[in-house]
């Protein structure tokens, strides 16, 4: 972290007028007294934090890093970012549990699990082994874990030849697509090609977001700068970079720069400016009259939940508007803030119940809406929603893919 | 790709003025997008609609007082709007409450008379339109009042309020689950049936025959009507909410219902998108630049409604050189003292020289020097809402009026041709 960055973040706290708007929006402090809330933990406690001196408050570890406080603050205080730094400092002082080092490396886990997917999937769902993992590592026995696909998206990418087209998109697919949901990646490629893009898929690794949210800033910097180097050369002309993992695209767009202090990295700067969330890109195409709307009717009722990190793009809810273009599809917008999982937060033994309480409002809304499906832009949120509501959850892109009949 | 989107109207700000304007425009068929840096002042406001409380003495009948008030204050936003437009804005709002997500929740009142409701310290606040859950709090209604407080809610002192309104105070003695809670935390508990039962069991036996019950405004966020009606029925007496310090639950209900009206009509809301500047062709504003993660997005629009608020919201700013200006478009302010003149007076609640500073507009809410822009709400010059008791009235009626003006313009076939509209 650069001192300049830290000073900018700290400078923002003087704009806090203690209006409590962040407190009304914080999903965590509204369900547990263990986290005293973003105003208290952010601009107030920050005044007592001195570099080189011990952390003042261990409760900052209970911040899930969802970022909603920063989004709703009418005064522009970088509350979530201040808390991310405080969490990093505290973990540097007190040490990072092995568990956090493991769950923060989805790419490593993916590489290990993919070749032995059937065994790995059974292991992750074996109750005795999960109890053991909870005791030994602190990963909650009931926490939702994804299913290894047994094949990587990379394998598809290497075989796939995208037809030459007037526009080019560089596809950033993230670890979720690579190891768990390669079919979602294939659908993104098909939709982009259907809409006149040639799709380039560079070899790529994790964006480092889980490391960053677990306070492992140095490791996260390594990952995100490597990713930026992998993507940047392909985006040097007019190409856009498109991602389907909304929290990972947010990492590239903003969090790596604002939280990890990589403002001056030229590759990251280019990548940050060129990166689009896939629904954001498609909505802009639609705005320009260039999105193909040859949709077939989909006679279903779908609940749409915009994940916290998607809201952190500051682009509204483009997926909602895209889904509304599909004939016969009835979309019910969920009005709850957060599903609770926040990446790796809800996996942790001491935080699982909090995450479930955070998501309770959303889960109740999903059940009450009596829907066929839930659409949500983030994979960890989808896994959490499925875990808690048993409603099948898909990326909005999957509904568009179905409607296109591709 | 350029990160550029097109709308008929972009509204900047998600307070009462901005959301009202946007929702009404969307209902009228306009493609609308609201851009907001964050949540607006709804969460800090009491949830009542105060139209005109003081002129300078307390006003009993705002509808009758308005004509002479605007005559005496020709530069006031109400002078540009007129009583009829204020009344129709209030009517529109009442209907949106009725259609809103809070089933059965309603507002009572209008311009006929002000209701004197207690603030959290027991001062009288004159309001024209009030939530049904507050209506039984009229200070001149007579009878006994019992104020119930919650130990965990440290911003609301039942005994203080009781002493000032001549009532008595009780501590609810229910476990809210925390040592310290804000109004929202307690409101969420009141949405649970068991908690309501516990409250009724603990408080009911200690109430006296004929007492009205005053409570901090914590009777639920999503279903205030249900919570309030159930408690009134079970405790067998009128109950009224008293607005609290922020976060204000009744204010959050207003945000929720206006946002729902906007969504129902197909309007868009983008939160966290601070507008940093404008795109212009000559004097005509053709769009605004908003902060988006990764880079700015340009929102092109035929018209821009500026609803960014006053000094407290950052819509207006007094800089280090003592120059006051509007912050998004850099519009000049009227009624701001010159750098050499006196800006503040020692009496805190006295008439402050800076108080009426704001953007001057014509009768169609257009500021001078730019075209394609309408200004609404607390950014307008000429008002002193905290002395007049007029803040929500100005926000609601100017927001509504801007929408009506733009819809009429579009209906007359003028809006699509930008060159004609501000002639």
In short, what is this structure?
The complex is a heterodimer of chains A (406) and B (423). By secondary structure, chain A is α/β, with parallel strands linked by helices.
CATH topology of the largest domain in chain B: FAD/NAD(P)-binding domain
Helix vs. strand class of chain B: alpha/beta
Number of helices of chain A: 22
Helix content of chain B: 25-40%
**Distance, first to last CA of chain A:** 46 Å
What is the level-2 CATH architecture name of the domain at 295-404 in chain A? 3-Layer(aba) Sandwich
Order of helices and strands of chain A: HHHHHHHHHHEHHEHHEHHEHEHHEHEHEH
Q: Taking all residues together, what is the mean pLDDT of chain A?
A: 94
Instruction: Determine the strand fraction of chain B and express it as a percent band.
Output: 15-25%
Could you spell the SSE succession of chain B in H and E letters?
A: EHEHHEEEEEHEHHEHEHEEEEEEEHHH
By secondary-structure content and strand pairing, the structural class of chain A works out as alpha/beta
Radius of gyration of chain A: 21 Å
Biggest β-sheet of chain A, characterized?
A: 4 strands, parallel
Poorly predicted regions of chain A are none
Spatial gap, N to C terminus of chain B: 34 Å
Query: Would you give the CATH topology of the domain at 295-404 in chain A?
Result: Rossmann fold
Helix content class of chain A: 40-55%
Low-confidence stretches of chain B: 414-423
Tally the helices of chain B: 11
Name the CATH superfamily classification of the largest domain in chain B: FAD/NAD(P)-binding domain
Q: Can you tell me about this structure?
A:
The complex is a heterodimer of chains A (406) and B (423). With 406 residues, chain A is an alpha/beta fold. Among the domains of chain A are: 92 residues, Fumarate Reductase Iron-sulfur Protein, Chain B, domain 2; 110 residues, Rossmann fold. Helices cover 50% and strands 8% of the residues of chain A. A four-stranded parallel β-sheet of chain A has the order 2-1-3-4, with helices on both faces. Chain A has a four-stranded parallel β-sheet with strand order 6-5-7-8. In chain A, strand 7, helix 21 and strand 8 form a beta-alpha-beta unit. In chain A, helix 12 crosses helix 22. Chain A is globular, with a radius of gyration of 21 Å. The mean pLDDT of chain A is 94. By secondary structure, chain B is an alpha/beta fold. Chain B has two domains: 265 residues, FAD/NAD(P)-binding domain, CATH 3.50.50; 108 residues, 3-Layer(aba) Sandwich (Rossmann fold). In chain B, strands 1, 2, 11, 12, 13, 14 and 17 form a seven-stranded mixed β-sheet that branches. In chain B, a hairpin with a 2-residue loop joins strand 12 and strand 13. In chain B, helix 1 runs parallel beside helix 8 and helix 2 packs antiparallel against helix 3. The longest helix of chain B has 23 residues. The chains are: A alpha/beta (406), B alpha/beta (423). The interface between A and B is large, with 40 and 43 residues.
């Amino acid at each position: 972290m650069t001192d300049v960055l830290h000073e900018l973040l700290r400078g923002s706290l003087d704009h806090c007028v203690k209006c409590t708007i962040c407190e009304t929006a914080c999903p965590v402090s509204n369900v547990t007294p263990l986290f005293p809330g973003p105003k208290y933990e952010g601009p107030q406690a920050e005044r007592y934090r001195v570099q080189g001196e011990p952390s003042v408050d261990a409760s900052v570890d209970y911040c899930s890093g969802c970022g909603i406080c920063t989004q709703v603050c009418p005064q522009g205080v970088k509350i979530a970012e201040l808390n991310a730094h405080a969490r990093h400092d505290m973990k540097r002082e007190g040490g990072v549990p092995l568990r956090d080092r493991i769950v923060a490396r989805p790419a490593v886990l993916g590489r290990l699990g993919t070749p032995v997917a059937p065994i790995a999937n059974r292991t992750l769902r074996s109750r005795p082994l999960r109890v053991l993992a909870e005791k030994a590592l602190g990963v909650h026995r009931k926490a939702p874990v994804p299913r290894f696909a047994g094949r990587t998206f990379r394998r598809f990418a290497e075989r796939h030849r995208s037809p030459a087209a007037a526009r080019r998109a560089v596809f950033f697919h993230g670890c979720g697509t690579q190891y768990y949901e390669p079919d979602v990646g294939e659908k993104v490629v098909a939709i982009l090609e259907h809409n006149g893009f040639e799709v380039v898929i560079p070899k790529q690794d994790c964006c480092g977001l889980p490391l960053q949210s677990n306070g492992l800033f140095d490791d996260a910097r390594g990952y995100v700068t490597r990713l930026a180097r992998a993507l940047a050369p392909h985006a040097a002309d007019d190409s856009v970079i498109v991602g389907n993992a909304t929290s990972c695209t947010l990492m590239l767009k903003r969090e790596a720069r604002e939280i990890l202090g990589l403002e001056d990295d030229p590759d990251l700067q280019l990548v940050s400016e060129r990166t689009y969330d896939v629904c954001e890109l498609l909505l802009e195409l639609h705005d320009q009259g260039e999105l193909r709307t040859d949709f077939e009717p989909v006679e279903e009722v779908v609940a749409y939940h915009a994940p916290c990190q998607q809201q952190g793009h500051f682009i509204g809810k483009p997926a909602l508007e895209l889904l509304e273009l599909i004939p016969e599809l009835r979309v019910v917008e969920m009005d709850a803030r957060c599903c609770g999982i926040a990446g790796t937060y809800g996996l942790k033994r001491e935080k699982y119940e909090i995450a479930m309480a955070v998501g309770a409002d959303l889960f109740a809304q999903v059940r009450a809406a009596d829907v066929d499906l839930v659409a949500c832009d983030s994979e960890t949120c989808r896994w959490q929603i499925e875990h808690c509501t048993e409603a099948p959850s898909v990326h909005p892109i999957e509904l568009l893919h179905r409607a296109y009949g591709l | 790709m350029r990160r550029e989107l097109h709308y008929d109207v972009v509204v900047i700000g998600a307070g009462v003025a901005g959301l009202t304007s946007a929702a009404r425009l969307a209902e009228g068929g306009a493609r609308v997008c609201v851009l907001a840096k964050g949540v607006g002042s709804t969460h800090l406001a009491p949830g009542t609609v105060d139209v005109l409380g003081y002129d300078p003495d307390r006003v009993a009948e705002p509808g009758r007082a308005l004509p002479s008030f605007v005559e005496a204050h020709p530069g006031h936003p109400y002078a540009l709007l007129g009583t009829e437009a204020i009344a129709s804005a209030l009517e529109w709002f009442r209907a949106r409450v009725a259609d809103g997500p809070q089933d059965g929740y309603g507002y009572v009142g209008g311009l006929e008379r002000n209701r004197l409701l207690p603030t959290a310290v027991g001062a009288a606040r004159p309001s024209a339109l009030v939530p049904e859950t507050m209506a039984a709090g009229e200070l001149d209604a007579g009878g006994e009042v019992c104020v119930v407080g919650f130990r965990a809610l440290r911003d609301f002192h039942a005994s203080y309020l009781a002493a000032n309104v001549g009532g008595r105070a009780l501590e609810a003695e229910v476990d809210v689950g925390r040592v310290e809670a804000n109004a929202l935390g307690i409101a969420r508990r009141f949405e649970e049936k068991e908690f309501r039962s516990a409250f009724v069991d603990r408080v009911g036996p200690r109430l006296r025959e004929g007492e009205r019950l005053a409570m901090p405004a914590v009777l639920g966020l999503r279903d205030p009507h249900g919570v309030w009606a159930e408690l009134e029925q079970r405790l067998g007496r009128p109950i009224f909410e008293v607005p609290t310090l922020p976060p204000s639950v009744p204010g959050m209900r207003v945000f929720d219902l206006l946002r729902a009206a906007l969504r129902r009509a197909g309007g868009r809301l983008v939160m966290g998108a601070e507008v940093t500047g404008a795109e212009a062709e000559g004097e005509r504003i053709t769009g605004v630049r908003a902060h988006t993660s990764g880079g700015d997005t340009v929102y092109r629009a035929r018209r821009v409604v500026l609803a960014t608020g006053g000094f407290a919201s950052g819509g207006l700013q007094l800089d280090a050189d003592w120059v006051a200006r509007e912050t998004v478009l850099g519009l000049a302010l009227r009624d701001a003292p010159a750098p050499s003149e006196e800006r503040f007076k020692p009496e805190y609640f006295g008439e402050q020289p800076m108080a009426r500073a704001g953007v001057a507009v014509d009768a169609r809410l257009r500021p001078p020097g730019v075209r394609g822009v309408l200004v609404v709400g607390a950014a307008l010059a000429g008002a002193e809402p905290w002395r007049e008791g007029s803040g929500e009235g100005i926000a609601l009626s100017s927001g509504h009026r801007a929408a009506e003006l733009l819809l009429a313009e579009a209906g007359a076939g003028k809006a699509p041709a930008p060159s004609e509209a501000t002639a």
